[in-house]
C-alpha cells in the first residue's frame, strides 16, 4: 500500500469535499471537520518517527508518466519528516485557532478549501523525490498562498499583496524549474536521490553552476531572502491564521528545505557557500534592522520572519562548508551549523506561530495592530501577554526558551567558520560573526518593542476600536500549546535532536553518514563561559541600550527613504513592463477579425510552407496514386462549384447552406474512401454546426457589400491562393514522404490489446485515452466559456466592490 | 405569422426515437464497429437539436427538465474519474480493463471500463452542444 503517497493526497481530497460540507452543514463551523485531516496526518507521521529515527527512509512510488521517468515518489527521511510534522502539527493548531478567528459570516468554505490545497501541496514539496513533481507542488503552494492572501479580495491591498507574492515566487519557481531541467539533463534522472548518488560525475559539467544559481533563485524568492523579501510584508494582508501558517511556519520554509535538500548536490562549492551564507546573513541583518522601524505588529513580525529565515539560510550555507573538505574531524565541526539550522527551523515555527496568533488575538480584541495606538494591555489580557513574552524572549535568544539554544549554536557556528582557511574565509570570514551579532542586537530590540509597546505603558482606550478583553478561551489554546512547546524544547531539546534532526542530518550529509560519522549534536543550555555566552550577554546589554535610546538614533532610517526602496523599484519595473507591452499589443491587436485571420493564414503559409520547402518534402509522384472514380470526380467538382459560389452569396443564409454542402460533400468522400467512422462523425457534426450557425445567424446583421481597397483585395487574393497552394502541396507530399517508421502496425492488434475490433475507438478510448480525456475537459471548458460569456453578465454593483 | 409545421412536428416525434435508438446503438457498437462515445453523443445531441428546432425551447425544457451544463460536467467527471479509478486498482492512470463474462441468456459478453470512459465522452458532448445551442438562442 502506498499510504505515504496517499497522505499527500488526503488534503486534496478534503479540499474537494469541504465545499459540500460547507453548503449542507450550516450550524457547525466547517473547521471542526477540517481539523481532523492535519490531526490524523500528524498522528500517522508521528507513528513513523521510530522507523525514521532508526536511520531508515521510506520510499513509495505511484507511476505517473513512467516513460519520461516522472513518477510520484514519496520519500520520507528525517528532513522530510521534520517538515511534514511541522506542516501537519502547526496546521492542526492553526485550524483550531481559525475556528475562533473566522466567524461563520465569512466564506470559510473557500478558506478551508484553499488551506487544504496548500497543505497537500506543501506535503508534496517536502516528500517528493522527483524534481518535476516537486516543482508542480511547489507552484501549487504559490498559487494557494495567492488565493489565501487575497481571501479578503474586496480590499485593494489584499489583491496587490497577493499579486506581488505570486509574481515573485512563481518567477523564482520557473527559474528553479530550469535549474531542475539542467540537473536532469546532466544526471539523466529526475530523482533527487539518484542525482545525489551521481554528484561526483556531474560537478564538473558546464551547466553545474548555472543550475546551482537557478535553483537558489527559486529558494531565495520562496523564502523571502533579500532582495526578494518585499513580498512577505505585503502578504500580511492575509487573515492572521494564514500568516501564522504559510508566511512564517511552513511555506516560507520551502526555500530553506530546498537548500537543505540540495546541499549534498551543490554543497562544497564556493559559489553555493557564499551565495547561501552571504544572502542569508545579509537578510538576517536587513530584516531585523527594518523590523525595528515598523509600527504595524504584523509588519514587524513579517520583517522578523524575513530576518529569522535569513539566519536559518546562512546556517545551511555555513554547514555546507563541511562537504568541501570531505569527511574528517575538522569538517565535522562545520556540520554543527546545519544541525543548528534544523533545530532553529523547528524553534522558529513554534515561537513565531505563537506570536502571530497573539497579534491575531490583539487585533481581534481591540481592532487595531498599530503600536502607536496600543499599550497597557498587560492587566486586561494577562494570558496573551504571557504568551507574547515567551515568544518574544525566545525570538530574542534568551533563556529559558528554545530560541536561546539555537541562537547560541548559531553564534558558535559563526565563530567556527572564521577559523576556516578555504573559500577566502581567512580574510572575509570575520565579517560573518560581526554582522550576525549586530543583527541579533536588532532582533533583541524589536522583540522588546513587540512586548513593551503592546502590553506595557499607558492604556489608551480612546484610540482603540473596542475595549481590550481576553478572547474566547478556544482562541488561546493554540498559542498556549505553542508557547508551552517553546519552553519544553528548552528543557528537553535532545528529544527532537536525536529523533528528528540527527536522521535529517544524514540526509544532508549522506557521504559522511556512509563513513559512519556521528552527525548528532548534544544540545546543552550551559556551555560554560564561552564566547557565545558573552555574545548573548552583549546582545542583551547593547539591545537594551538601543531600545531606550531609540529616539536618538532612529534618524538613521531616513537614510533609507521609501522612495528609494526595492519596493518602489519593483513597482516601477512592473508599471513600465505593462505600459510597454500595452503599446506593443495595441499595435497588432486591431480589433478586426479580418486582421487576425490574416495573421493566422500568413503564419500557416510561412511556417508550414517554409518547412515544406526547407525539408524538400514537396516532391511527389502522381502515377502511384489510385485512380479516381467517376463518383469522386462528381463530388469533388460539385464541391469546387459550391466553394466558388459562396464567394458570390448575397445573404448569410445562402452562405451557411452552401458551407454545409461542402461539409456533407466531405462526408460522402469519406464513405467512398471507406472511412465509415469519419463519415458518420462528419455527417452529424455538419448537421449540428449548421443548426448552430443558423441560430447565431439570427443575431447577425444583414450581409453588406464591403468597400475594400485594391491593396487589401490583392493581399487577400495572395493569401488565399497561398493557403490553397500550401495545403494542396502538403496533401500531396504526405504520400511520398515518411520521416518516421509507421506505427500503425501496433494498433492492428487492438482486439488482443484493448478487446475491441474498432481500431479507431481503441485508439481514442484506450491507447491514447489521455488525449481524449483532455479533449473532453477542453470541450467542457469551451462550453462553460460560451455559456458564461453569453449568459452571465457582470452586475453593475460589482464595480463598486473593487478598489475599496 | 404562425408557421404551420404540423407535419414536421409529427414526423419529428417519431424520428426522435429512431435517432435516439441509433445513438444508443452507435454508442455500444463503437467497440467493434463504427460508432463510439463521440459519435453516439453527437447523434443524441442532434436528436435534441431537432426537438429544439421543431418545438420551442420552453416546451422542451418543461418536458425535459435537465440542466445540460451538469450533464457536460458529469461527463467530464466520468472520463477523468475512470482515469483515477485505474489508480485505485494499482494500475497506471487511465489503464482500461476488459474481460469476457458468461451471462445466462445473453451468452458471452465483454465488459470493459472503456464503456464508462466513452459514456463520459458522450455525455460531455451532449451537454456541451445543447448548452451552447441554448445559450446562443436564448440570448436577448
Automatic annotation (TrEMBL), chain A:
GO terms for cellular component: plasma membrane. The chain crosses the membrane at residues 6-25, 32-49, 81-102, 109-126, 132-153, 165-187, 199-221, 242-260, 272-289, 301-327, 339-362, 374-398, 430-456, 476-496, 533-553, 596-614, 626-649, 656-673, 679-700, 715-734, 772-790. It is a multi-pass membrane protein. Residues 639-702 form the MrpA C-terminal/MbhD domain. Keywords: Antiport, Cell membrane, Hydrogen ion transport, Ion transport, Membrane, Sodium, Sodium transport, Transmembrane, Transmembrane helix, Transport. It comes from the Bacteria. Its main location: membrane. GO terms for molecular function: antiporter activity. Belongs to the CPA3 antiporters (TC 2.A.63) subunit A family. This is Na(+)/H(+) antiporter subunit A. The gene is mrpA_1.
TrEMBL record, chain B:
Residues 7-131 form the Na+/H+ antiporter MnhB subunit-related protein domain. It is a multi-pass membrane protein. Keywords: Cell membrane, Membrane, Transmembrane, Transmembrane helix. The keyword Transmembrane helix applies. It is found in: Cell membrane. The keyword rRNA processing does not apply. Its main location: membrane. GO terms for cellular component: plasma membrane. The chain crosses the membrane at residues 12-31, 37-58, 70-94, 114-136. It comes from the Bacteria. PANTHER family: NA(+)/H(+) ANTIPORTER SUBUNIT B, NA(+)_H(+) ANTIPORTER SUBUNIT B. Belongs to the CPA3 antiporters (TC 2.A.63) subunit B family. This is Na(+)/H(+) antiporter subunit B. The gene is mrpB_1.
Amino acid at each position: 500500500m502506498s499510504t505515504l503517497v496517499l497522505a499527500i493526497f488526503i488534503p486534496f481530497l478534503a479540499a474537494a469535499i469541504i465545499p459540500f460540507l460547507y453548503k449542507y452543514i450550516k450550524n457547525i463551523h466547517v473547521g471542526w471537520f477540517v481539523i481532523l485531516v492535519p490531526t490524523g496526518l500528524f498522528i500517522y507521521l508521528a507513528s513513523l518517527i521510530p522507523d525514521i529515527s532508526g536511520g531508515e527512509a521510506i520510499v513509495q512510488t505511484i507511476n505517473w508518466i513512467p516513460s519520461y521517468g516522472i513518477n510520484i515518489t514519496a520519500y520520507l527521511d528525517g528532513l522530510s519528516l521534520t517538515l511534514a510534522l511541522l506542516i501537519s502539527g502547526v496546521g492542526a493548531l492553526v485550524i483550531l485557532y481559525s475556528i475562533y478567528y473566522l466567524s461563520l459570516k465569512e466564506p470559510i468554505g473557500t478558506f478551508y478549501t484553499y488551506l487544504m490545497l496548500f497543505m497537500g501541496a506543501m506535503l508534496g514539496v517536502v516528500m517528493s523525490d522527483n524534481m518535476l513533481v516537486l516543482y508542480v507542488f511547489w507552484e501549487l503552494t504559490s498559487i494557494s498562498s495567492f488565493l489565501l492572501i487575497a481571501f479578503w479580495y474586496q480590499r485593494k491591498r489584499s489583491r496587490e499583496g497577493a499579486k506581488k507574492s505570486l509574481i515573485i515566487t512563481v518567477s523564482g519557481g520557473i527559474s528553479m524549474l530550469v535549474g531542475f531541467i539542467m540537473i536532469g539533463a546532466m544526471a539523466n534522472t529526475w530523482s533527487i536521490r539518484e542525482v545525489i548518488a551521481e554528484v561526483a560525475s556531474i560537478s564538473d559539467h558546464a551547466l553545474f553552476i548555472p543550475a546551482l544559481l537557478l535553483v537558489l533563485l527559486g529558494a531565495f524568492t520562496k523564502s523571502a531572502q533579500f532582495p526578494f523579501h518585499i513580498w512577505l510584508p505585503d502578504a500580511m494582508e492575509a487573515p492572521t491564521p494564514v500568516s501564522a501558517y504559510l508566511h512564517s511556519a511552513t511555506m516560507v520554509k520551502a526555500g530553506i528545505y530546498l537548500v537543505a535538500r540540495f546541499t549534498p548536490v551543490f554543497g562544497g562549492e564556493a559559489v553555493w557557500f557564499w551565495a547561501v551564507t552571504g544572502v542569508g546573513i545579509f537578510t538576517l541583518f536587513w530584516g531585523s534592522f527594518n523590523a525595528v522601524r515598523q509600527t504595524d505588529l504584523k509588519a514587524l513580525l513579517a520583517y522578523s520572519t524575513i530576518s529569522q529565515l535569513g539566519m536559518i539560510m546562512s546556517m545551511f550555507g555555513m554547514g555546507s562548508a563541511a562537504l568541501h573538505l570531505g569527511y574528517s574531524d575538522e569538517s565535522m565541526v562545520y556540520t554543527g551549523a546545519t544541525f543548528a539550522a534544523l533545530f532553529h527551523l523547528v524553534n522558529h515555527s513554534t515561537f513565531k506561530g505563537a506570536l502571530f496568533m497573539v497579534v491575531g488575538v490583539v487585533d481581534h480584541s481591540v481592532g487595531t495592530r498599530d503600536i502607536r495606538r496600543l499599550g497597557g494591555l498587560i492587566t486586561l489580557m494577562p494570558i496573551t501577554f504571557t504568551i507574547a513574552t515567551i515568544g518574544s524572549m525566545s525570538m530574542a535568544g534568551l533563556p529559558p526558551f528554545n530560541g536561546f539554544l539555537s541562537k547560541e549554536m548559531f553564534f558558535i557556528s559563526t565563530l567556527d567558520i572564521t577559523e576556516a582557511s578555504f573559500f577566502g574565509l581567512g580574510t572575509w570570514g570575520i565579517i560573518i560573526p560581526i554582522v550576525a551579532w549586530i543583527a541579533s542586537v536588532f532582533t533583541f530590540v524589536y522583540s522588546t518593542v513587540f512586548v513593551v509597546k503592546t502590553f506595557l505603558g499607558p492604556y489608551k482606550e480612546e484610540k482603540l476600536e473596542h475595549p481590550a478583553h481576553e478572547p474566547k478561551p478556544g482562541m488561546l489554546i493554540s498559542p498556549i500549546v505553542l508557547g508551552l512547546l517553546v519552553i519544553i524544547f528548552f528543557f528537553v531539546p535532545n528529544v527532537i535532536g536525536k529523533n528528528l534532526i540527527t536522521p535529517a542530518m544524514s540526509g544532508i550529509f549522506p557521504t559522511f553518514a556512509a563513513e559512519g560519522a556521528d552527525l548528532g549534536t548534544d544540545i546543552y543550555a550551559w556551555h560554560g563561559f564561552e564566547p557565545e555566552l558573552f555574545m548573548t550577554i552583549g546582545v542583551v546589554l547593547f539591545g537594551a541600550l538601543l531600545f531606550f535610546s531609540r529616539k536618538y538614533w532612529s534618524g538613521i532610517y531616513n537614510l533609507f527613504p521609501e522612495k528609494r526602496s526595492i519596493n518602489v523599484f519593483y513597482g516601477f519595473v512592473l508599471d513600465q513592463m505593462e505600459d510597454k507591452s500595452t503599446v506593443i499589443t495595441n499595435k497588432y491587436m486591431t480589433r478586426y477579425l479580418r486582421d487576425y485571420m490574416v495573421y493566422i493564414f500568413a503564419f500557416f503559409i510561412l511556417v508550414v510552407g517554409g518547412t515544406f520547402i526547407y525539408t524538400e518534402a514537396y516532391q511527389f509522384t502522381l502515377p502511384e496514386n489510385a485512380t479516381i472514380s467517376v463518383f469522386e470526380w462528381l463530388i469533388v467538382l460539385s464541391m469546387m462549384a459550391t466553394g466558388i459560389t459562396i464567394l458570390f452569396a448575397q445573404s448569410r443564409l445562402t452562405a451557411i447552406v452552401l458551407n454545409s454542402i461542402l461539409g456533407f460533400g466531405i462526408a460522402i468522400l469519406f464513405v467512398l474512401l471507406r472511412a465509415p467512422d469519419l463519415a458518420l462523425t462528419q455527417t452529424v457534426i455538419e448537421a449540428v454546426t449548421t443548426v448552430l450557425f443558423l441560430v447565431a445567424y439570427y443575431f447577425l446583421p444583414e450581409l453588406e457589400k464591403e468597400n475594400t481597397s485594391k491593396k487589401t483585395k490583392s493581399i487577400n487574393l495572395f493569401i488565399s491562393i497561398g493557403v490553397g497552394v500550401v495545403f494542396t502541396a502538403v496533401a500531396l507530399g504526405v504520400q511520398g514522404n515518411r520521416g518516421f517508421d509507421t506505427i500503425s502496425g501496433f494498433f492492428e492488434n487492438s482486439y488482443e490489446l484493448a478487446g475491441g475490433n474498432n481500431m479507431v475507438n481503441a485508439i481514442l478510448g484506450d491507447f491514447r485515452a489521455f488525449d481524449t480525456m483532455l479533449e473532453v475537459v477542453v470541450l467542457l471548458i469551451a462550453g462553460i466559456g460560451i455559456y458564461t460569456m453569453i449568459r452571465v453578465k457582470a452586475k453593475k454593483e460589482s464595480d463598486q466592490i473593487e478598489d475599496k | 405569422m404562425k408557421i404551420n409545421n404540423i407535419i414536421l412536428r409529427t414526423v419529428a416525434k417519431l424520428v426522435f426515437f429512431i435517432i435516439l435508438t441509433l445513438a444508443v446503438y452507435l454508442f455500444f457498437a463503437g467497440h467493434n464497429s463504427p460508432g463510439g462515445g463521440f459519435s453516439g453523443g453527437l447523434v443524441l445531441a442532434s436528436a435534441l437539436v431537432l426537438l429544439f428546432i421543431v418545438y420551442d425551447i420552453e416546451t422542451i425544457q418543461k418536458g425535459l427538465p435537465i440542466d445540460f451544463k451538469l450533464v457536460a460536467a458529469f461527463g467530464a467527471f466520468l472520463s477523468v474519474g475512470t482515469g483515477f479509478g485505474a489508480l485505485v486498482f494499482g494500475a497506471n492512470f487511465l489503464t482500461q480493463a476488459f474481460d469476457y463474462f458468461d451471462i445466462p441468456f445473453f451468452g458471452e459478453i465483454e465488459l470493459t471500463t472503456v464503456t464508462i470512459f466513452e459514456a463520459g465522452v458522450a455525455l460531455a458532448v451532449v451537454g456541451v452542444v445543447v448548452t451552447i445551442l441554448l445559450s446562443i438562442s436564448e440570448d436577448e
